[in-house]
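Q: What would this chain look like folded?
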Amino acid sequence: MNAAPSLHLVPPAETEPDTRSESFGREPLGPEPLWREVVGARLRHLRRRHGLTLVEAARRAGISPQYLSEVERGRKDPSSEVLAAITGALGEQLVDVTHLATLDLRRQHSGLAAPPPGEIRLSA
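A: My prediction, written as C-alpha cells:
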C-alpha cells in the first residue's frame, strides 16, 4: 500500500515576494474607501438623478429618511434586504447598483485622475 504524499507549508520568502501592501510596484494611494461609503455615494447619485428627495426615496423603500441619509453618507452598512429595497425604490436593479459601486471602488483604488461621465468619486 502506498503512503499518501505529505503536505508541508512553504514559507512566503521561498515562493514569491509579498506584494499585498505594495500595490504591485505602485505608490500607496492611502486607505481604500469602505464598501458602504462607495455604495452610499452611488445610491445618493442615483436618487438625485431620478429627482427624488430623501423623504420620497425612503418612503418608497419603507425606511426612515434618517436611515437612508446615513446609508448614503456611508455611516450605516445596510442589510441586503434594505439595499434591495432602496435600489427598488430608485427603479434600479440591485445587481446593476452593486456593479457600478464595484467599478467606482476599482477606479478610486487605481488612482485614475477622473471618473468617466456618469460615474462618481468620493472626496477625501
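Residues 94-110 form the longest helix (17 residues).
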